[in-house]
Amino acid sequence: MQLLLVEDDNLLGQGIQLGLRDKGYQVDWVTDGEAALAAHADLSPDLIILDINLPKLDGLSVLRRLRQAQHPIPVLLLTARDSVEDRIAGLDSGADDYLVKPFSLAELEARIRALYRRSIGRQDESIEFRNIRLDLRAREAFIDQLPVSLSKREFDLLTLLLERPGEVLTRRRLEEQLYGEDDPESNALEVHIHNLRKKCGHDLIRTIRGVGYRVEKPA
Amino acid sequence: MRSIRTFLIIGTLLMLVLSSAISSLWTSWHSSHEVEELFDASLVQSARFFHGLVVDHQERETIEELRESLQQLNSEAGHWDFPDAAQLNPGHPYESKIAFEAWLDNGTLLLNVPEHFKAHMPTQAGFDLLELEGRLWRVYTLYDPDHGVWIRTGQNNVVREELTGQITGKLILPLLLTLPVLVVLIALVIQWGLGPLRAITRQLDSRGSNDLEPLPDQNLPDELKRMVEAVNHLFVRLQAGLEREKRFTDDAAHELRTPLAALRVHLETGDLRPELSDALLQAVERMERLVTQLLALSRLEPKEYQLQRQPADLHELCGEVMADLIPLADAAQVELALSEQPVPTVDIDPTLSAMLVRNLVENAIRYSPAGTLVNVSLMSLPEAVQLQIVDHGPGIPATAREAVFERFYRLDKSDGKGAGLGLSIVSLVAQLQGARLVLSDTPGGGLTVTVDWPR
Questions:
Q1: What's B272's domain CATH number?
Q2: B320 — contact with chain A (CB < 8 Å)?
Q3: Cβ pairs A/B, distance under 8 A
Q4: pLDDT tens column, B190-225
Q5: Which end of chain A is more exposed for a tag (fewer CB within 10 A), N or C?
Q6: Is some CB atom of chain B closer than 8 A to the CB atom of A84?
Q7: What's the whole-model pTM score?
Q8: What CA–CA distance (Å, rounded) separates A173 from A177?
Q9: Residue B257 and residue A101: Cβ atoms within 8 Å?
Q10: Interchain CB distance below 8 Å, B326 and A171
Q11: How many distinct structural domains can be found in chain B?
Q12: Are B437 and B430 in contact (CB under 8 A)?
């Protein structure tokens, strides 16, 4: 994947370039707004990582020019400002996502991947986690390559959890995703979790009492 | 001068008493003098009248008749000295009995009424003061050389003075009676006059510590107007100073973010020994947290902050915040738990409240020994929803429970855990939303933070 990085801080620009190259991305790096527009025209990258505070032409102006020219390229904004107003201004100018400094490389990479996936309109076809594999197309689950029968809700729930290993999903969020506007029976979620544990192993899903559930990230 | 009010009241009263005293003295002296004059005049008048009677009766040789009728008249009066209102022909309180004497040139006493009014043969006309049988008399003597008759009229001086006293007393009385009324009125007027000053004091008193809004200077008396203008001017300068400080904090924090990001990215990429990179990452995280907290504090200036209140479910809010903090809890090997039962929604600013819960839970995690539980519970009370965060860390001694809310205050400066801003943020947020914040001991050791959100 070819990325264009626009960051005027040498130390940070260099760090991001190095870090992303390590992970196998091709990264071109420029340090001001005008150079960014020129590089975009020359290189036609897959995604732009754009700082807001830039010399010559600031990031939001670069973004507006791109959008005025009808470029659908995904843009991830980097900024030191994190107030709600700043976020809104960024997203209004046509940014696809917004990352506040400082951030970890892992987070940056996750955002890049998600943006890229969204831009080419494709979802992962399967999720693999430890000994579990979910085929999202066929909606089939396998443990140690053996098929496991899951109900629709159980499959959706497991997908939600395995998509974000290590992250706690609050009960409210899971219920919203699973049931939409419908009010679930009060303990429906617990029942599904219970069934999933029975079918996929008791140590797969951890309960954070009162908060929600998660699967542990593989160490 | 301790109090303008007391000063004005006492000063005015002193002057009032002084001027009353002077005018009373003047009135009393002057009026008693005039009354004396009037009494004297009546003495003269009576003498002339008596003289007419005596001469007339002497010519007709009926002096005895005159004596009898005069004595008759005299006996009708109850008491010689003071008139009696119950008598047949009521007189006047200021009427004073007049005694008479008539002498002939040859030294014969022709007539005297009453009988105890009997002085020596007069030798000189005019006013005099005589002592008869232990009593003082004011007398007037008239001499008629044509008939060789001396006429003397007299008034008991004590009675006269008593009457004079009564009359002047009645003149001064209103002056003395109005004095207390005036005192009350003056005190009221001064109290009323100082009203605007009290109003300004009240306004300043009721302000939050960061409220530098100018005082209203309309409809103020001139003296206060100038003072209020000066105070407002000071407020403007103070406000500008505070804004400069706030802008500086804001700018500094933002400027720190880019190098911090660079530091982190390089650390994550570089080939450092794991324990070194872990230590450096920890330092970076601390700095990141400090920057975030500094920004939060600079935004929380109570005057500036626009509360965005809306009904919110604290249970959901706590759940989300805690879900975010699970990685931190995992790293510290601390378990997090949230009570299960739902609570009614409360009107809060969700962003601010999340900041409060995050800071409290983060603190609890940071100070909890590995293997312990941080328990967050929500409870519905009649007038509040109560949030309790219970940890089993070192706790905060009762003596430090006020100081911990001050910026950059740290109980243990070497613990390497924070900058001492978290609780400042928490107390500011609580204060902004009218929530009550209490620190206490967890039974068995640790800190319990209780926040009551009014319903």
A1: 1.10.287
A2: yes
A3: 102
A4: 889 888 888 888 888 887 666 778 888 778 888 888
A5: C
A6: yes
A7: 0.59
A8: 6
A9: yes
A10: no
A11: 3
A12: yes
> Do the Cβ atoms of B288 and A212 come within 8 Å?
no
Strands B447-454 and B384-390: antiparallel
* C-beta separation of B172 from B22 below 8 A: no
Residue type, B158: V
A101, A106, A211: residue with CB nearest B261: A101
CA–CA distance, B437 with B435 (Å, rounded to integer): 6
In contact, B301 and B242? CB cutoff 8 Å? yes
When divided into structural domains, chain A yields a total of 2
Cis peptide before B174 (omega within 30 of 0): no
Are A65 and A37 in contact by the 8 Å Cβ rule? The answer is yes
Cβ within 8 Å of B, A 100-119: 100-106
| ipTM for the assembly | 0.72
Q: Count CB atoms within 10 A of the CB of residue B258.
A: 21
Residue A56, token pair as written in the block = 């010559």
- For residue A61, the enclosing domain spans 2-119
Q: What is the largest CA-CA distance in chain B?
A: 158
The H-or-E segment that residue B126 falls in is strand B126-132
Residue pair B374/B391 in contact by the 8 Å Cβ criterion: yes
Which of B305, B303, B291 has the alpha carbon at shortest distance from B249?
B291
Dump pLDDT digits (tens) for B117-139. Answer: 787 888 888 998 888 878 888 89
**Strand locations in B147-229 (E):** 149-156
Task: Among A66, A96, A119, identify where a domain stops.
Answer: A119
